[in-house]
Amino acid sequence: MTDLAQDLLSSFVVAEAGLNGAKNLGVVNMRKEALDRFEATGFPTTRDEEWKYTNLKPLLKHDYKIMLKSESAVSFGDIKQYLLSDLDTYKIVFINGKYSSWLSESTHQSYDICTFAAALNKYPDIIKKYLGKAAPAGETFVDLNMAFADDGAYIRVKANQTVDKPIEILYITTDENGASFSQNRNLIIVEQNAEVQIMERHQNIDEAESFTNFVSEVFAARDARVSYYKVQNDSDKSSLVDNTHVKQTTGSNVHVGTYSFGGKLVRNNLHFYSCGEHAESHMDGITIIGNEQTVDHHTLVDHKEPNCYSRELYKGIYLGKSHGIFNGKVFVRQKAQKTNAFQQNDNILLSDKAKVDTKPQLEIFADDVRCSHGCTVGQLDKNALFYLRSRGIPKREAEGLMTYAFASDALEYVKIPQLEKRLNGVIAKKLGINLEFSL
Amino acid sequence: MNDEIIDEITASEYKYGFTTEIESETVPPGLNEDVIRLISSKKNEPKWMLEWRLDAFQTWLKMVEPNWPNVNYQKPDFQTISYYSAPKQKKALDSLDEVDPELLKTFEKLGISLDEQKRLSGVAMDVVVDSVSVATTFKETLAEKGIIFCSMSEAIQEHPELVRKHLGTVVPKRDNFYAALNSAVFTDGSFCYIPKGVHCPMELSTYFRINEAGTGQFERTLLVADEGSYVSYLEGCTAPSRDENQLHAAVVELVAMEKAEIKYSTVQNWFPGDAEGKGGVFNFVTKRGICERNSKISWTQVETGSAVTWKYPSCILKGDNSVGEFYSVAVTNNFQQADTGTKMIHLGKNTKSTIISKGISAGRSQNSYRGLVRVGARAENARNFSQCDSLLMGDKCGAHTFPYIEAQHPSAQIEHEATTSKIGEDQIFYCNQRGIGTEEAIALIVNGYCKEVLNQLPMEFAVEAQKLLEVSLEGSVG
Predict the structure, then answer these.
(1) Which of B405, B417, B421 to mutate to test the interface with A (most CBs of A within 10 A)?
(2) Measured between beta carbons, which residues in chain B are less than 8 angstroms from residue A329?
(3) Has the ipTM of the complex gone over 0.85?
């Protein structure tokens, strides 16, 4: 058992008392069971196949503060730059894992856009129906989150409604608590034929050594449409384990874009469960990291029903001593005939010390399917680079342009122009080029 | 219609499932130091060899059987296997004529009459039955060129310095569970040494057969190609049909020195178990080659047999400019399970590797490709291309792909692609239209699908492999 595991186990009793859901007996039991499972398994090690390339040890040795202060000195001015200023949105803002009502803009009118803590008290029936139904018990970080998470975003869009403006969820970490370990949880329920666009951002505004264990559960009912964009722009010191579990039913269309621009260790577990015919699952990812950062994308698409479609495109650019990991699993059950699954992972290594480990997997039990995956590791085309330079574009800029072109494929499905522009800007900045003309 | 055809394949019985009544000498089942000492003394081995074996046995005792492969099987009980079974012979043989006539008949049944082979195809063969090498043809012709091609036990007697120098250098004793077991109890196998600058004039070949019931086969092959030499080596395997599961845990080591080239081809047709999935051979093999500067190792395999297979013929591309290749066709039917692939470890500069893997699954079988491409931190300009395709026939089988790609150098260029599909109904329809029956059409399409790999096989084997494919898959539509 690591130090952090010990700390967590011993603090559960105290944490539980302060947790919401004491009135809601079902949730209390779920938390206890989840903690028991965590106690039995502990944190995964590199001997665990799913964590083969990602070593958590250095992270877990650290002394983290588990009980975090609820007040914070962060003002709107501090976080303004992380919100889309040129777009009207609903906002749910968390500072160090605690909800900040004066920075947020929630609603209960046509749809519920509020906090998980509020939902626990207000809607016990819905919580009972959905909580923990997409994220499987037995996964260490999911269990741990289940045991502790007391807040997060709660979004419920009722049948046939379209949310009039995008929702921004912002998680800010500061060093007010020193090194901290926080756990939050989103619950997103999109009912029949409803539509929603969500942007989520994890941002570290000081150089705090924080560690976040985050779970999102997304339920897309019949013909629902969900776009969910995750921007992970943390510092060199903070770490994030993000678990997103999407459960889809007939005819639903869900797109999850994950854009990772840094962090000491970022691990994304993105799981799609295709539980109805004609469901469409889209996954896009861009990773641009440098220094000693590590980003690990683990995706799983579980095709359980026939006639479903899944598409996955992950692009990685690695500088400095960074380490990129990709593990994509496509599972096609025997029943899921006529599945069409596509998976692509392309990586560019731009430095001698950077490394990438990738493992695209197909597990197929049905015969009438079209499944393919492709994976490349390479560098910029020397001829193309020469072409640009021969036309007077400096080497650095030429490289930037080509790298940008390589990455921008994965932005094609972003449906919010302002977000696309923002992402373009972040990519350009990361690559050290000036791309104003293209915006 | 489809069901009928699938039934038909399922019904096509294993052709090589006969046993031969040869008087053989088998040690009682069980594994302990005494058994190893007995094997070693029976083979009149030098002391260092016995010590090597005992050390391997000690290592093995501390290891646990791996369970990461994507296969399910009843773990063998190592105390019920007999580790030594030799066809009884009175004295050393001088020529083929003295070989037990019963045994010769076996090979005739297998369609590889030694005589025939010797005269017609010019293939030099080493035949291993139940772990012991029975005859090596063409020894004299090879000796003229300085090529050593003999059984492992003979090599230990006659060329101990070569064996001692290379044995265990590519697959160390403690490499894995089955390699350690093999190191402790291997009874025979082939040894081959090609001297500097020699281009081996003929294909070298080994035929393995498990004959005796309740025995395991643990052979060890060591192939050393000295500077600038070339050799093409073939390996074939069969076993009689039996209800029980037999264990085959071999180790193959290849050493390609500077500018040498080794081509290693396998047609594996161990008994796959019957239509109910009963019996069959467990094929747990460790195969690995090491490439020095400017050398090349090419693995080609056609796998149609075994109840459970896990093997990953690998290349360690240690020297600069070395090349590794892997071509594989793996067919699984009924209840067969295969977890196979390759490892390409790029260590030297400008190293290149190619992986072409074709999997075909039918019946209730599970076929997995598992491959590793690793580019080390000093492997400048390493290049890899991998392609693994799977063909599914019927809706009860599975095809899986687990590629591992680890790149640590920015100049590495790695491409991997995989597809899974079934035989298109329009393809079959096209053939039908032109008067080709469904069964033939499938044979045609499957052969075309595997062509890239079959083309790599030497002539004699390509024909056999093609026939094997037809037998295992006669007309199946998904």
Answers:
(1) B405
(2) none
(3) no
